[in-house]
Fold this sequence. Notes:
Elements: H1 8-25, H2 27-62, H3 69-103
Helix pairs in contact: 2-3
Amino acid sequence: MNKKPTSKYSQHVGDMAQRKLKAQRHVNKTVWFGLGMMGLIGWSVVVPTLMGAALGVWLDDLYPGGRSWTLALLVAGLCLGCFSAWHWVEKEDKDIHQNEDGDDVE
């Protein structure tokens, strides 16, 4: 099938219309996905932080001394949780961009 050559402007308008239609198809999925991702990120930071603090309190009670295990393990848990959240965001971002690239082919 022969296609007529199109101007840059009409190609640009066509691309914009295609992106708009694609965004309208995925709007509900995106909103719920975003809310779920916020919850996942929040819990992936909170859980290791609280576990580190709880372990630190237990160690402070078991081995009293000049060092605070609670503070050290709280910070370690926070760092671990932030790394975990960063990993999830990077993974999902990569998946989203791969899906966008795959959706362009029709």
